[in-house]
Each structure stands twice: as structure tokens, then as C-alpha cells.
Automatic annotation (TrEMBL):
Keyword Oxidoreductase: yes
Highest taxon above the source species: Bacteria
Domain NAD-dependent epimerase/dehydratase: 11-255
GO molecular function annotations of the record: oxidoreductase activity, acting on the CH-OH group of donors, NAD or NADP as acceptor
Name by which UniProt lists this protein: Dihydroflavonol-4-reductase
Record's keyword terms, sorted: Oxidoreductase
InterPro entries in alphabetical order: Epimerase_deHydtase, NAD(P)-bd_dom_sf, NAD(P)_dehydrat-like
Presence of keyword Magnesium: no
Pfam families: Epimerase
Organism name: Paracoccus lutimaris
Length: 349
């Protein structure tokens, strides 16, 4: 894919300190592309240290710009002269005080501000949106309601709300807003819809929910059993490659499900046992669904969530991304072990 990458103009990456954004920036700099990166505080040298340390090919540069998702016009300076915009900035957390303020507003209004700026910026010819499979479904049980029992790019999330799974609702609203703006824009919009993203970070301690799950595993919280929570899994490095393909392949278009493995949480965590089982309290068996249902409120879960996700298969059609973006996927064990090792080195547990 290297020969198709346009190095004549810089690209913009929003939310540069994020888990996915870090790998996108790394791949761009390695390929000789100059990057404009937006962050909340460009003066925070410690927070940007791992990005500044990234190797770069001749001609590639990395510049930081201050921008706030909720501030209109905030991205104008960073976007000036850019050919491609990667909009990755959006909160991914299950801990929040106010779902509207902490999840919906940053996702929806941030997408609106970034894409409206792209519409006003003549140099921008393509926008790659980091959406999510959460914009396609809420619970694994939704898969059964999809055509043929399999999620596709044609399916939209109709079951999330502000009250139930607001993160999924935030991603749904944000992506819908992006397509609405793109209808009247010169640029082409391409959406990347990854499932649960795992794997090592390029540095620091990301706040992504993925790391919160793995931290619980490393601390032994699942040693008496982990739920067979139906999920798709994908490596962050493969997600970064999907973004570059979406940006630079001439025919990339539409939504693209990016998922390497149809699995569940227990199966994924079990891939760690061979290498780390003697030192960490990793699960050896499934936590019974009836027990999880009973204690769900004490675990911070709803019984509805347990009913619709535990022991329920997750199914998605990944053929479009493989065919049109040329995607291939790492083995799940490699992803999980690389992530766990990274977290050991970073002293998460």
C-alpha cells in the first residue's frame, strides 16, 4: 500500500494521545507523511513524550495543535493545508457521571465541529472517521436480529439509548451526523467500524476501556471465572492499517467493519494462560450466567446486559474490509499477549 500514500500534504489526526491515534501517527510517520496532531494541551511535554519519540522517515514531521472537541472553529489552524483528516477523538469509557455530558456531547458535537471544519477547508479531500461496531449493534443478542444472523455495514444500532448503553448510542449519533454532513461536502467520508480493540499501546497508559478490562484480569479479578461475553476482537495495529487504507486507497468508501475474531471474553483471556498463568490469577473457567445475572447490580452491570451478552454468540461479516481495504488480522493470542506484556512493563498491575 505504500506506493499509494500521498506525501504531498500533511494529514490531521484528532485526539492524538488516544490508543488508536498513536498507532495511526506511528504508521504515517514511518511512511514519510507529515502529521498535524490535535491535543488538549500541546505544552504537556510528558503526555506527548511517546509521540515525539516516534521514528519518522525522511520528510515526515509531527506538529501539535491545541483543539477542543466542543469548541467550534477549534480545528481550523490544525486542519489548514491538510489533505486527509483522521477523526479519532471520542471518549471510550464505562465510567461516567453524566452520559449526555461525558459521552454524547463530545462524540456528537466533536464530530460535527471537525467535519464542518473539513467542509470549510478546501484542501481536505478525504475524512476517515473512527466509528465503532457500537454504531451497528448494542448487545450480542442483536446479531440474531440482523439479516442472516450476522452484522453487516448495512445494519445500524437501534437498541441503544441515553439510558441503556449510552456509549453505543454516542457512537451511533456521531456516525450518523458525519454521514449527514458528508452529503453536502467536497470530501469523501470513509468510516472504520472496529469491534473491541486490544493490543499494546505505543507508550503511556491509555484510558481506553480495553485497558480497564485487561487491568482487572491482571489483578486477578477473574481468577474464579470470566464471563463468556460475546464480542469481536481486533488488534490496534490492524485497526491503524485499516485507517491508512481508508485514507489512501482510491476506491475506499462507506462503512467498514474491522474485526479479526468472533469470540468471547473468557476465550480471549484464556490465551494468556500459557505464558502468564503461573504468575497471575487468570481465569480457567466460565463464570455461570445465572450467577452473573444475580450479582449484576453489585458488579455495576444491568441484568439486561448480562441476559443479552453472556453466552450469546457475536457474529459479523468482515468480508468488505478484507476485500476493499486489503485487511488481514493477527492471531488473537498474539494481540492479547502483546497487550498483557505491555501492561506488565508499564506497571498496570
Amino acid at each position: 500500500m505504500d506506493h499509494q500514500i500521498d506525501r504531498s500534504a500533511p494529514v490531521l489526526v484528532t485526539g492524538a494521545t488516544g490508543f488508536v491515534a498513536g498507532w495511526i501517527i506511528k504508521r504515517l510517520l514511518e511512511r514519510g507523511v507529515s502529521v498535524h496532531a490535535t491535543v488538549r494541551d500541546p505544552g504537556n511535554a510528558e503526555r506527548l513524550r511517546h509521540l515525539n519519540a516516534l521514528p519518522r522517515a525522511d520528510g515526515a514531521s509531527l506538529r501539535f495543535f491545541k483543539a477542543e472537541l466542543l469548541t467550534e472553529g477549534s480545528f481550523a489552524e490544525a486542519m489548514a493545508g491538510c489533505g486527509v483528516v483522521f477523526h479519532t477523538a471520542s471518549p471510550f469509557t464505562s465510567t461516567f457521571a453524566d452520559p449526555q455530558k461525558d459521552l454524547i456531547d463530545p462524540a456528537l458535537l466533536g464530530t460535527r465541529n471537525v467535519l464542518d471544519e473539513a467542509r470549510r477547508t478546501g484542501s481536505v479531500h478525504r475524512v476517515v472517521l473512527t466509528s465503532s461496531c457500537a454504531a451497528i449493534y448494542t448487545d450480542a443478542a442483536d446479531c440474531a436480529d440482523a439479516p442472516g444472523g450476522v452484522l453487516t455495514e448495512n445494519v445500524w444500532n437501534r437498541t441503544a439509548s441515553l439510558e441503556y448503553q449510552p456509549y453505543s448510542w454516542s457512537k451511533t449519533l456521531a456516525e450518523a451526523e458525519a454521514w449527514k454532513i458528508a452529503e453536502h461536502a467536497r470530501f469523501r467520508l470513509v468510516a472504520i467500524n472496529p469491534c473491541l480493540i486490544m493490543g499494546p499501546a505505543i507508550g503511556g497508559k491509555p484510558t481506553s476501556e480495553s485497558f480497564a478490562i485487561m487491568e482487572r484480569a491482571g489483578r486477578g479479578e477473574f481468577r474464579f471465572g470470566a464471563p463468556r461475553l460475546g464480542l469481536g476482537f481486533v488488534d490496534v495495529r490492524d485497526v491503524a492499517e485499516a485507517h491508512l487504507a481508508a485514507a489512501f486507497l482510491p476506491d475506499a468508501e462507506g462503512r467498514n467493519i474491522v474485526a479479526g475474531h468472533e469470540s468471547d471474553l473468557l476465550t480471549a483471556l484464556m490465551t494468556l494462560r500459557a505464558k502468564y498463568g503461573d504468575r497471575y490469577g487468570l481465569p480457567t473457567r466460565a463464570a455461570p450466567k445465572f450467577l452473573l445475572w444475580l450479582v449484576a447490580p453489585r458488579l455495576g452491570l444491568t441484568r439486561k446486559f448480562v441476559s443479552r451478552n453472556v453466552d450469546v454468540a457475536w457474529r459479523a461479516d468482515t468480508s468488505k474490509g478484507r476485500r476493499e481495504l486489503g485487511l488481514t488480522y493477527r492471531p488473537l493470542q498474539e494481540t492479547m499477549q502483546d497487550m498483557f506484556q505491555y501492561m506488565i512493563e508499564q506497571k498496570y498491575f
